[in-house]
Amino acid sequence: MLSVNSDEHYMRQALKQAQLAAEAGEIPVGAVVVANQHIIARGHNQTEQLTDVTAHAEIIALTAAANYLGGKYLQGCTLYVTLEPCVMCAGALAWAQLDRLVYGAGDDKRGFMRFGKELLHPKTKIEYGVLHEECGILMSSFFKGKR
After folding, report:
1. Of residues 23, 26, 58, 127, which has the active-site annotation?
2. What is the per-residue DSSP string for 41-99?
3. Tens-digit pLDDT profile for residues 80-129
4. Within 13 Å, how many C-alpha atoms sit on residue 138's CB side?
5. How many helices (H) and strands (E) does the chain have?
6. Is 58 a catalytic residue?
7. How many CA atoms lie within 13 A of 97 on its CB side?
8. Which residues pair with 111 in a beta bridge?
9. C-alpha to C-alpha distance for 113 and 128, rounded to whole angstroms
10. What is the C-alpha R_g of the chain?
11. pTM passes above 0.90
12. Cα angle vertex 18, ends 5, 124, to 5°?
């Protein structure tokens, strides 16, 4: 039985957001922000819909979480995202002073780890590979459909 407060549970919620992105014709990346074992924000890619290159799932979720909390810092929060964040999103996560980042699939082409975890805030803990296969399948299926 999957615990309601497990990394897998929250990543499944991020996968639901990624599916919403895919259904809208967006690259299927989804994210949720968790504080005190509650989801306080959700986001999925909306770059096409908003014609905004910065409308990544992480940025949308961070903005919603900051609005929910009433402040720009996300100390005590965990971001679950289906794909390794890009450099832009890693920078935003650093500025937000996120406690923990959990991501599913890696991104060898655009992921921040090409440059190192130093792009994040020094206190941010990283977990990766959570539901890696499901996250990766969603991405590869989306791009197969585009080709």
Report:
1. 58
2. EEEE--HHHHT-TT--HHHHHHHHHHHHHTSS--TTEEEEEEE--BHHHHHHHHHHT-S
3. 999 999 999 999 999 999 999 999 999 999 999 999 999 999 999 999 99
4. 28
5. 5, 5
6. yes
7. 7
8. 86
9. 11
10. 14
11. yes
12. 55
Average pLDDT, the chain: 94
The two tokens of residue 11 are 């990543």
Please name the residues in contact with 85: beta carbons below 8 A apart, sequence gap of 6 or more.
Answer: 56, 58, 93, 101, 103, 111, 112
d(CA 79, CA 64): 12
Tokens linked to 124:
């941010």
Amino acid code (one letter) for 25: G
SS3 assignment, position 111: strand
Provide the token pair at 114: 């090409």
